[in-house]
Amino acid sequence: MSPTGRHALITGSSRGIGRGIALKLSEMGVKVAINYRQNEAAANDTLMKVRERGSDGLIVQADVSRLEDVRRMFNQVQAAFGRLDIFVSNALGEIFTYYRPPLELTPEQWDKAVDSQAKAFLVGVQEAARLMGKGGRIVAITYRPGGLTASWQPYFAQGSAKAALDSLVRYFAVALASRGITVNAISPGVTEDSVLNSFPQEAQDGIRAWHRAGWTPMRRLGTPADIGNAVTLLCSEEAGWITGQVIVADGGASLMNPDFPLEIQRG
Ligand SMILES: NC(=O)c1ccc[n+]([C@@H]2O[C@H](COP(=O)([O-])OP(=O)(O)OC[C@H]3O[C@@H](n4cnc5c(N)ncnc54)[C@H](OP(=O)(O)O)[C@@H]3O)[C@@H](O)[C@H]2O)c1
Question: What is the pLDDT of residues 41-82, one digit of tens each?
Fold first, then answer.
């Protein structure tokens, strides 16, 4: 499937990584539906940048943690595009409303995390599959360490929801394989121009210093364009045999060994 002449929906693409994905796909000639929750100005700015790249699209407001919003969003996309070739589930969710350690998290906060990640993907894929023909592409933006580690305690709900998302990717990959639709996840490393910029400045500075000091072997953080490139690769015709995978795009950070001090790991 060549991305040119295709239609994509990217949730949470008004800003951050989602915007990076929208811009890279639009550079490949893909028309994009730009979903946002509240920041309409940012969504319009993304659409303007899409048009500067010679493509086009529309903006669609929807809170992906609300089922009725997700269904309305897909109906709007169907009305505008008639069909869908690429669905990227990227929206962050209102993470700071459920950013609590395990012993403090309320069941309501748990539901918000799961609804914005796993349930949004469940319903989103069911809706996307309805609009897709053979050779469609579905990509979830996950965070693999969220499901494998536990030291970042307030990330508990989002990390658990991301683990469920990774599992959904595998089940849907099998469910849609006979239709030639691939379902994969990209797990970005820490990325600039994203939710990172909402962290306290001291935390941001510490994270950047840590990665530049060598924890990321490429000695920089990722960019939304890096993740847009990774998604674009998965949306190429040549990626048609790759399905059900969580692909880490992090400049090599996941190759580091936490058992040993950084100093003795550098080449
Ligand atoms: N940043 C990183 O370092 C990093 C690393 C690994 C994985 N990720 C993943 O990458 C994805 C994007 O994160 P980001 O850092 O790019 O976030 P971001 O810059 O804060 O942007 C968040 C985007 O999601 C939208 N959004 C938030 N809640 C939503 C909801 N309930 N319904 C619909 N849209 C919603 C926002 O819309 P509005 O503009 O309307 O608010 C915005 O477009 C997330 O899934 C995150 O877990 C990020």
Answer: 999 999 999 999 999 999 999 999 999 999 999 999 999 999
Q: Is the separation of the CB atoms in 88 and 8 below 8 Å?
A: yes
Answer whether 38 contacts ligand 1 (Cβ < 6 A). Answer: yes
Ligand 1 pocket residue status of 197, Cβ below 6 Å: no
Q: Which atom of ligand 1 is nearest to the CA of 116?
A: 31
Express each pLDDT in 228-266 by its tens digit.
999 999 999 999 999 999 999 999 999 999 999 988 887
Half-sphere exposure of 37 (CA within 13 A, CB side): 13
Residues involved in catalysis: 155, 162
| pLDDT value for 1 | 47
Going from the Cα of 37 to the center of ligand 1, the distance in angstroms, rounded, reads 10
Tell me the best of 70, 92, 116 to mutate to test the pocket of ligand 1, counting ligand atoms within 8 Å of each CB and taking the most: 92
Residue ranges and CATH numbers for the domains of the chain are 7-255 (3.40.50.720)
- Answer whether 0.85 is exceeded by the pTM: yes
Atom of ligand 1 lying closest to residue 40 CA:
40
